[in-house]
Every structure is written in C-alpha cells, then in structure tokens.
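lol ok so funny story. i was supposed to be doing the assay writeup but got distracted and ended up predicting the structure for this chain instead. priorities right. anyway since i did it might as well share w the group, maybe its usefull for someone
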Amino acid sequence: MPAKGKHRRPKSQRFSRTIAIAGVGGVALALPLMGAAGVHAATPAAAHSVVKAAPAAAKTYVVKAGDTLSKIADAQNVSGGWKKLYSDNHSAVGGDPSLIHPGLKLTIDQKAAAPAATATATQAFAPKAATGAGFALPVQGASIGTAYKTAGSMWSSGYHTGVDFVVPTGTPIKAIGAGTVVSAGLDGAYGNEVVIQHADGKYSQYAHMSSLSVSSGQTVTGGQQIGLSGATGNVTGPHLHFEIRTTPSYGSDVDPVAYLRAHGVSL
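and the output, tada:
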C-alpha cells in the first residue's frame, strides 16, 4: 500500500481522471464460441442431412434512457453481442460505443432460430468457458475507461497504475481468484479499497468502492463478491480501479489485463 493519499498528486486539486461516465457494459469475458460435438442417429442406412437455420430477420430498436449496447444486445439476442451491434450501427452511434442517446434507432440483427433436431442429424453445443480455472473478471458488463500505463501528470507515478472498469455505483465487485484479504478499508485517494493476495504471490486491488463486504484476514474464493462499486476517493465519476501488484503496496503494479489473460480470462 502507498502512503495514504499518494495515489494522486496532492499539490494540485484541479486534475480529474479522464474516464467515460457512461459505459458500455459489454466487455464480457469471452463471447461464446460454439463448437459442434457431432451426435448422430444410429441408423446405418440414414443419410445425414445438414439442417440450416432460417436467416435472422433484422428489426429496428429505439434506444431508451438507461440503455447500453450490451444491455440491448443481451435483451435482443444479438449474435456477436454488443460488438456486433456496434459494428452494424457504427454510422449511427459514432466513434464512442459508450455514448448512445434515447431516441437513437439501431438495426438489430438477431440470432437465427436453432433448427429442429431430426432423426438423421442432431447437434450438441457447449459454450467456451467464460473464465479461466478459478479466475474471473472483477466486474461483469463493463467497458474499459482509462487503460493501464496511460501517461499523465495527475498520477503520482506519472502514469495510470491500473485499469478502470466503467460501471455505475452499486455494481457487484468480485474477487478475480481465490486468496486472502490483506486489507479492506479507506485508503486516501483510492477511497474504499480491498487488496487480496493470491496463491501465485500476486496481489489484486479494487478501489473507489461504495461498500465492502469482506474484511482483512478473510479467505475468499474466485468470483466471490467483495463489495459494490462506487466513487469514493479521488474520482470524477463511479468506476472500479483495478490493479495487479507484486506487493500489497502502491508502486509495484504490473499489467492487469495481461495478468488476467495469462490466467485464461479474456477482455
């Protein structure tokens, strides 16, 4: 941990973190990749037929207050999730997928209906695992605001030591993997934070939380809720600041995205 309040340069009160307040909650762990496990009828004389799904019908959706591309993609069953929805509507949405406004009309290309099973051809599908072995994203349905190593004088180290997940206040925050809570409480510019030590010796940090549901010394499992997101400490809006460290203290950061990917978690 840093000396209290050293996350930011204390001499200047005019700085602000540059984050997107409205987030696209669609940066999921992995978009499901479907693989066929061929299961066929055991009739020797039967010719195996290929059953194709009917083309999906496109429709128009009008954005409502509180919508995000991720929410819309999930609710409308869009194949490819929010990224496909954004790609299909890039000209209407513009360059920032996190900024959509009520009244905006989007073209929805829904998933094709699954074909009915036949006596000569059936298929069984299994989605790709959403997390690595015991590891998961700290928050679901979030986009990345400020990336790791983003340079700037507003940070004491001269760069952003973690990655920001843009989520509204009250979003459940989860431990990325099993470990032991080494600290949980208020820590200066980080606001309410939790630091967890994992079996590989690395530490994960979760900052700016509105409330904590674990305490120091407690053992947690991967995916266990440890609190709720918020905007405590030095922030301009609600989000989760997430770090991976080699020690419990500020200044020992490593790339959090690379760490998650190394443990089988996709962003």
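Confidence is low (pLDDT under 50) at residues 1-6, 9-51, 112-132. The first helix runs from residue 69 to 75.
back to the writeup now i swear
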